[in-house]
Amino acid sequence: MDRYKGACFCEAVQFELNLKNLDLTICHCSMCRKLTGSTGFASLEAGESLHLMNTDGLSILDSSTVGERAFCNKCGTSLFYRFKSSNEYFVPPAIISDLPEENIKLIEEIFYDNKPCYYEFSNNTIKKNEADFQ
Ligand SMILES: [Zn+2]
Ligand SMILES: [Zn+2]
Questions:
Q1: Range of the domain at 32
Q2: Most buried residue among 16, 77, 105, 114 by CB atoms closer than 10 A?
Q3: What is the pLDDT of residues 101-117, one digit of tens each?
């Protein structure tokens, strides 16, 4: 498995990780959209492999009973989602260096029924709704 390096915009948070695969998931839930200020939280699965190298800017938000999110408190970059029970990390591709982008595939959209009507990805994806997670 390839080891990748990553960092926030200002590099006050730096990390290394392995990726389980290059299958991209986008979460459309309101929390992900609010916390990224974007169309959703796009992430790759890093399992338990994320290792922090520089934590100068690291802040952790205890965002729900199941998960926490990290961001850089110096530049504001959204860093990762971590499942508390399994210690699995989900990391946005844009903060990982030297990814083979041509091999990344957007395969899944979750909390699809939480997506606002004003955008739609054209990729042929597996779509899961909020009820699929209850
Ligand atoms: Zn930063
Ligand atoms: Zn979400």
A1: 3-133
A2: 77
A3: 999 999 999 999 999 99
